[in-house]
Amino acid sequence: MSVPTTPSRRSVLLGGAAALGLTALGSTQASASADKLTDPFTLGVASGDPYHDSVVLWTRLAQNPLADNGLGGMPDRAYFVEWEIATDEGFRRTVRRGVELARPQSAHSVHVEVEGLRPGSEYFYRFRTQGHISEAGRTRTAPAPGITRTDLTMCFASCSHFGAGHFTAYKRLAEDEPGLILHLGDYQYEYAAGANDVRQVLGPETRTLENYRLRHAQYKTDPDLQLAHATAPWLVVWDDHETENNWADEVPEQPDPNFLERRKNAFQAYYENMPLRRTARPRGIDMQLYRRLQWGGLINFHMLDTRQYRDDQACGDGVKPNCDARLEPTRSITGEEQERWLLDGLRRSRARWDVLGQQVFFSQIDLTPGVNQGYNMDAWDGYKANRDRIAEGLGKTRNGVVLTGDVHRHWAAETKSDYTDPTSRGLATEFVTTSITSGGDGNDDPNAGVLAENPHVKFHKNRRGYIRTKFTADELRADYRILPYVRQPGAEATTAASFVVADRDRSLHPA
């Protein structure tokens, strides 16, 4: 194989194994099977949950990723998978290496928790089995605890429906070369193929473990998604569509006596396909997904789970006027234990920025223009007391920020202590990212009626894309990135608006 001797960063991330050669992984060809595989790295590589001295590396073997049984065309046996992590793109300075066993019981997924790494450092990693080498991924560790004089470019995204369009936004996100990527839910959708789909979704509506494994595999075959995973470590949390639309704890959207089995299957497949630590391994119908990650002393990321513990949506779900049930003080979207954990973390925090990575609209938003008020019962407005307690907790931190997905629109909002008074005390700022594809191309409707009802909401855009942020000790900048279309591939990204939040200022300022 002819390879360049000094591959560039772009050649590593875009060119994969062809840019690397096979020398650095050593000569071991260990396998628990005598079966010779074709290329098993068709689903790419990923990393996630970076600590200051550790990171998770992920891959999943699948020589036929779209096999109906969801097992990627792999024989029913285990395979040894070698991994290595280096400080250079050419893998001449390897700092850690090892071997993991990819088992059929876990759909031949591999989760490696690499320890002993240097804080605030960039690394490159790859995998090998039976002479096949994966593409290379780039990752990084968080800065050392307490370090605030640093910066972080972080992009976040949500809502990527395979059938609704092309994943070009993931490619544009990767081209921004962020140091960290947050995915805030609806990474994949459970629905069967639709009549208006741009790309064919394989399989029926996902219910069985085989269904969910196949659906994740189809998404992972997308080259733009693979590129985004290979560019930076990810912090992931789910929303509803990774399991089923608008589910709430043990309550499905529609009556289903088999829902808990469906939930168990969805959780298992989600873990198998995400760069998560062992602490997130599912136990039946339960999965520990909410967690806290410190980016030095600059940011505390509090990653929330607003599905697994919530009360059923009030008043039959949807946008409802005059729903008094949403005001009940015991109603919760987080559950009591997660709320205590979050408020305790906010109270103890000494970080410059405390960031909630979560799923549904946090600030109050009246979605019914005119005299009547209508709130979304699936969002925090349906759990007002729970929201207000957490908002007060954010208001006591140095800088409280909420990052949100779900609604397939770009929004920017100020979380207020009293939404009837635009001059009331600000508690946090909220940045809501639009979808990667869900909702199709979108349009330029300014949504003037809703904006007029909600003076604390400062921006809206109905296009697809993501949000790019830059955190420093002095300010947070958020760029609302949009694409003109997703029903065809190749769209360029532009910035529709930018906002700056200064240190100790809980208001949005156009940049």
From TrEMBL:
Gene3D superfamilies, per the entry: PhoD-like phosphatase, Purple acid phosphatase-like, N-terminal
InterPro entries: Metallo-depent_PP-like, PhoD-like_MPP, PhoD-like_sf, PhoD_N, Phospholipid_Metab_Enz, TAT_signal
Domain Phospholipase D N-terminal as annotated: residue spans: 43-141
Keywords: Signal
Ranges for domain PhoD-like phosphatase metallophosphatase: 155-480
One Pfam family from the record: PhoD
Keyword Lipid biosynthesis tagged: no
Leader peptide range in chain numbering: 1-32
Protein name as it appears in the record: Alkaline phosphatase D
Species per Swiss-Prot/TrEMBL record: Kibdelosporangium aridum
Classification lineage: Bacteria, Bacillati, Actinomycetota, Actinomycetes, Pseudonocardiales
